[in-house]
Amino acid sequence: MATETPATTESGKDPATTPDDHETGYLQPEIDLAALRSLLDGDYAEVRELVRKNLVENADVLEEAETLGHDEFRDRVRDVVVSVAGTGQTALGFPKAQGGSNSTGGAIAAFETMGFGDLSVLVKMGVQFGLFGGAIQNLGNEEHHAKYLPDVISGKLLGCFAMTEGGHGSNVQALETVATYDADSQEFVINTPTESAYKDYIGNAARHGEMAVVFAQLEIDGKSEGVHAFVVPIRIDNKPAPGVRIEDSGLKMGLNGVDNGRLWFDGVRIPRTALLNRFADVTPEGVYESPIESPGRRFFTMLGTLVLGRVCIGAAGNSAAKMALTIAIKYADRRRQFESADGEPEQLLLDYGQHQRRLLPLLAKTYALHFAQEVLTDQTHKAFSGENDDEDYRRALESRAAGTKALATWHSTRTIQESREACGGAGYMSRNRFAALKADTDVFTTFEGDNTVLMQLVAKGLLTGYASDFSDMDQLGMVRFVAGMAVETVVERTNVHKLLERVRDLLPGDDEWDQEAGLLDPNFHEAMFRFREEHLVSGAARRLKRGVDQGMEPAEVFSRVQDHVIAIGHAHVERLVLDAFVDKVQSLPDSDNKVALGLLLDLFALTTIEENRAWFMEHGRLTSPRSKAISREINSLCRKLRPLAGDLVDAFGIPPEVIRAEELLTWGDA
Amino acid sequence: MATETPATTESGKDPATTPDDHETGYLQPEIDLAALRSLLDGDYAEVRELVRKNLVENADVLEEAETLGHDEFRDRVRDVVVSVAGTGQTALGFPKAQGGSNSTGGAIAAFETMGFGDLSVLVKMGVQFGLFGGAIQNLGNEEHHAKYLPDVISGKLLGCFAMTEGGHGSNVQALETVATYDADSQEFVINTPTESAYKDYIGNAARHGEMAVVFAQLEIDGKSEGVHAFVVPIRIDNKPAPGVRIEDSGLKMGLNGVDNGRLWFDGVRIPRTALLNRFADVTPEGVYESPIESPGRRFFTMLGTLVLGRVCIGAAGNSAAKMALTIAIKYADRRRQFESADGEPEQLLLDYGQHQRRLLPLLAKTYALHFAQEVLTDQTHKAFSGENDDEDYRRALESRAAGTKALATWHSTRTIQESREACGGAGYMSRNRFAALKADTDVFTTFEGDNTVLMQLVAKGLLTGYASDFSDMDQLGMVRFVAGMAVETVVERTNVHKLLERVRDLLPGDDEWDQEAGLLDPNFHEAMFRFREEHLVSGAARRLKRGVDQGMEPAEVFSRVQDHVIAIGHAHVERLVLDAFVDKVQSLPDSDNKVALGLLLDLFALTTIEENRAWFMEHGRLTSPRSKAISREINSLCRKLRPLAGDLVDAFGIPPEVIRAEELLTWGDA
To answer: Which of B555, B563, B628 sits opposite A4 (nearest CB)?
Structure first.
């Protein structure tokens, strides 16, 4: 942001130093705080209130993260997790048969709200109920459910999700742990084949977990059937189970209340029924059976359960951004520094144009992501409840979950950093919350899928039109797939051409649509977002194809086009976010709140266009004067939002007890 | 970076997926590592080697930051500081009379190199020798030197630099602590007038400091003479001195080996000679005397001693960036992930185009900042040695120090973050170094001057041509000053017009200079940087003037033009950095190293232009095709630098003992 340079009009008139004309007659809205908060809480207001209550109940854990010893704090976090489980909060997403309410949406909303609290607690709950419990629920059969889920839900049985290995972070298909079927004893034998093939960063492994869902290559009679999940005891009476070696992963940048560990397996025998067999099974005689024919698709169907983790992490990431902005904006609305007319107090930080520019576009994007998350939560709920489970729907959902997670967690990292700097030295003190916020969220861009890899996944889906053999295609497969088609076919297949048709519907005027529409015309925003997405997809398809046609190695082609491919992911997800925000605002009855949300929407849309204005100019969709006018409009929107900013963060409904940062929020009260 | 989108040419030819034509005939250089390292170490190779030896000697402290208790670690850091002092390292910058070598340059180079080690040690040394010792040296007379400096240099007397107050971070002129002269007893009486006017974040205050240089408003007979510095005992026999209240500032995000504290003074009496009186004194009778007439200039002359702190923090920030890149690049050059031709091992991370794009432009900027820092160190040395001490020189130096500090520390924050993410989950483990690197450096963008405020300072200097009353002008003063002149006068005064003259000299061709020059022509780079700087300065002057002319309040004018003002700071400092890098490369005899540095220089120049390409397009200095060609050229430069990247980070000469991160650097060796 800091290098953005403002604009003067060619005519010499300088609206950025004169009152904006269109401000004449503009009525500044007043926020109805209760209504806005209720809108944000949405369908799951009750769940969120329960979580807020639990957060306040356990607010001490935020301070204890600093005062307790390493193991003490881990135990304390475990206790909080178990105690929250006692309130029923963690049962939400599980089957009714096990005392849950089968509400995936409720579980996501709960996790999202937990993002306001200590994030070790959040992540330990994610490991226990989302990953460990979720794997049993989604990959296991009803006997597995009955046997394990009640104790999982209550926190009596703590467990791990043992997927990642030291040698293979993002490339799960290549992991090395092996489960060999022994038909004589009707057991699987789990082995870590080399010293470096240990399971790494496994939450709950170092101290508390008794059981693990272990992902391993299934081998029967020397034949590999690909990666499958097994329930394996790893700790008995507080000691590693026979054949299991456990090491502590060691101190981390943050999240030190979660006991991540490493696991090695040496001939660990588990019964045949320990295979989570919803998608594939082995008969007692050792015959492999699966309703899904392609091993690749089978693998990705199993991995599809990861979608929930990604949905949750993206949501929690945005909650962390809300926390950071709540502190920074409320501080800037109290703190005075420099500059006063004679005798007047110093000026409030938030009255500085640059300070508005730093924080308010981030606030707008946080709102945009909130509503995008709401749509994603709803779609995930429908997929998991079976309300909508056809394969296309599921693939689009996986892509959306991956992309939203990447966008939201990058946004979170950036927002927390900017907010910390905006609070100066006080922002550096642990009690003022940013220390934990920064350290704990930092890994969000990496876990549940590295953001860069996730954005490639999104692009791959678009480029191949979610081709039926998409799932087992790696990047080189994608290059070959795209190269094998006519570019027109790619564009035709991918639905991307619909984007452009829609642009023409929105803004008639042929090739001049971008020049004639008003800057605040929502159709202009949508047209710009869609044009960018379509152009990037078809452009990347052309470049991939041309590279291969010219005889370059697919790996080299991919490497050279990779930044273009990743840009597709950004453009696509940003368009989905815009659509969600537009739909939400349009659905509201007229009110001041609608006006205020409209300002945020405009700010989000124009800031995104501004960030990409070089690209739009390069592609003939933005003239210089118009580009400068956008920057001026953004400044004007910031000035309109400035008096609303305090209410807009209050509407997030973060309990004061978990904000801490008293020093920042009560500045000058003394 | 991630949203950068690549380009295809209008003609349909796509150089980004075809081998670059101009690569034909291009000879890949081979780095002469010893020569490159010696070039980087420069004039102070001997000092740097001493520091490296001390770093290795005390390398354990990096791990102890994680294993020791809070107070234990603080004491350990103190012991390291004292032990390093015993090697003579910390005497370098002090007068020969006190056993120093009067080498400000050597002291800066030492501090820069210390940036490879634990940063609590670095900052505690900065507090002790730079701020506390530096204040006595630069603000005191020879008696103060003789009385205090020997014990300061040896670490026997630990002290504080008590400037910042709770209520006033950046606005030092407004601080509230008062020193009242009592002519009867010939003493000053130090008081904290309100509970909230405590000195805050004061290093060495909470545990180890016995003495503090306290900045307070000097009052004589009810008249305030502005802020002055006094030597005040704060701790005797490990207890607060009479009248002094000390509190621990509490846990911080990082740098927890430094004992920051809060100080309150209640009628603390110190002798008249405790005033550091180089720039102003009080006679025994209570008459105020100063060779500097203007109170504002006097204040800023005293503050001028802060310049050294800024020079040092910028340097250390870039060292932290070097550390992060060393780890991330060496890891990416070993770590394989995804994608392999059949039977081949997975591809190295650094062979991915996106990974090159993430890291190599940051490497280029780190090199650029290194050489810019070298120039700044040299200029600072000359100012402090008295070799060059006229006022204009000093003001330009202060501006340069402020801007370089801001640019380097923002670069450091960004580079560390990008490098952490590029190392995935392993980058999140404390033993792999990024945890401390991130947490400890985070405040660099804030302390010794908030970066945003510093960039304003740079712009203010340019806009007012370092006017003689510049020093005591706040932002509103600047607005009024600029408004009071004809814009032509501003431009004339500021030397900015010389920028444009130089552009015309460099690239004849009238208004088409930007279109005709080759993208790798250094004159093109310089012309673009200078055009931007000039245009921003004169544009901002016009907007400020117009705003006031139109009757807007100066505060409102400033708020609206603030992002433009800050953009001036960026443009100016980036141009200085480019100039320093160009001068360095041009000064080298022909060699492969020169070719390699030339690639880095081109990459730095083009990346900076690319980051601002929207601005250049808006201002008619870049066409779409040329903008896209720049992005392609950057990708091509990254591919050329890729095989050199390992050597380019090795040349920083970071001792392996302080890198830690063994897991990342030896990946796959097992």
So the answer is: B563
DSSP class per residue in B586-610:
HHSPSSHHHHHHHHHHHHHHHHHHH
Which phi and psi (to 5°) does residue A41 adopt?
A: -70, -30
CATH architecture of A307-650: Up-down Bundle (1.20)
CB A35 within 8 A of CB A591: yes
Q: How far is B382 from chain A (nearest CA, A)?
A: 31
Distance from CA of B269 to the nearest CA of A (A): 28
Lowest mean pLDDT among A660-664, B176-180, B645-649: A660-664
CATH 1.10.540.10 intervals, chain B: 34-154
For every residue of B385-427, which 3-state class applies, written as one string?
CCCCCCHHHHHHHHHHHHHHHHHHHHHHHHHHHHHHHHCHHHH
Q: How far is A388 from chain B (nearest CA, A)?
A: 33
d(CA A364, CA A352): 18
pLDDT for the residue A667:
58
Tokens, residue A374: 């709401």
State how far the Cα of B601 lies from the Cα of B605, in Å rounded to an integer.
6
| CATH value of A33-154 in 3.40.718.10, 3.90.870.40, 3.30.1360.70, 1.10.540.10 | 1.10.540.10
The segment(s) of chain A belonging to CATH 1.20.140.10 are: 307-650
Q: Are B301 and B625 in contact (CB under 8 A)?
A: no
Please name every residue paired with A244 in a beta bridge, in sequence order, or none if there are none: A265
CATH of B34-154, one of 3.40.50.300, 3.20.20.30, 3.40.190.10, 1.10.540.10: 1.10.540.10
**Mean pLDDT per 10-residue interval, chain A, length 670 residues:** 39 44 71 98 97 97 94 98 95 90 94 98 97 94 96 97 78 86 97 92 97 96 94 97 96 97 98 96 96 72 79 98 97 73 69 95 98 97 82 86 97 98 93 96 93 92 70 70 74 66 70 80 93 92 90 88 94 97 97 98 98 96 94 96 97 94 66
What pLDDT is stored for residue B21 in this prediction? 44
pTM (2 d.p.): 0.93
Superfamily of domain A159-293: Butyryl-CoA Dehydrogenase, subunit A, domain 2 (2.40.110.10)
Q: What is the pLDDT of residue A497?
A: 67
What CATH code would you report for B159-303? 2.40.110.10
Q: How far apart are CA A80 and CA A155, in angstroms?
A: 10
- Count Cα atoms within 13 angstroms, Cβ side, for B411: 35
- Report the pLDDT averaged over residues B3-29: 51
d(C-alpha B300, C-alpha A244), whole Å? 66
Here the tokens at position A3 are 């290098």
| Inter-chain CB proximity A614 and B628 less than 8 Å | no
Supply φ then ψ for residue A526, to 5 degrees: -65, -40
Complex ipTM: 0.91
Burial class (CB in 10 A: 0-12, 13-18, 19+), A10: exposed
| Residue type present at position B509 | G
Contact B561 A617 (CB under 8 A): no
